[in-house]
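User: What would this chain look like folded?
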Amino acid sequence: MNSYKTDIRNRAILSKDMKIIELIDVDYRLLSIFQRLDIQLPYGDISIEEMCRRYDMSLDLFLTICKIYIESDYRLDVAGLEAADLSPLLKYLKASHRYYIEDLIPRIAEGIEQVLQLCEPSQRAILQKFYGGYVDEVREHLQYEENEMFPYVERVISGDVSSETDDSGVKMADFVDNHTDICDKIDDIKSIVIKYLPERCSTRQRCNLLFDIFALREELAKHTMLEMMILAPVVINAEKTCGR
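Assistant: Here's the prediction, encoded as structure tokens.
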């Protein structure tokens, strides 16, 4: 039986008083959030509020990140967030980039190689080339954020951007306009694995690969939500405050 409170739809109610162990029971996938925010085990019986205080993190921001991950229909309100609250989010987004590049993407590549062992050379070449092209697209997307968007956000957080100090004309809206969707092509990879690889390819290996493909797609979708629904509107509000 769950120890945490639920609403009329039997969904967990996340609050500052909720224990960290209860939060993880709600959705074990939230462990990846702790890892990327460099929040260390053990957690003991501390509450979410105590954990946020210990790590000097905005409680509202942490709860918002968790809700985006576990509630598919979550409606975000960033009214209480300011640019100064974005540092942990920026750290999380950068850590997510490393997680994708260093863990998830290589794991999928390894899974593809295992699945393709029993395929014809032509079949192997097609999927390998398609996935390789997709990885290049993801890397380019993430590098753009690392080299262009995130440094600008850091300047906004530090108060180093105003009409007087920055004459580049660049605004957060420019980054939003240039933000490409990198989720669609992974659906094509998923379809190839499910529909077109020969039956002699191991079902167990194919399913393991699909688990990782679905995980990457969900991760990238949540990542985009965090950027477009939190990072962008808070930075845009900060730009208005400093007269840009």
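The mean pLDDT is 87. If you want, I can go into more detail on any region.
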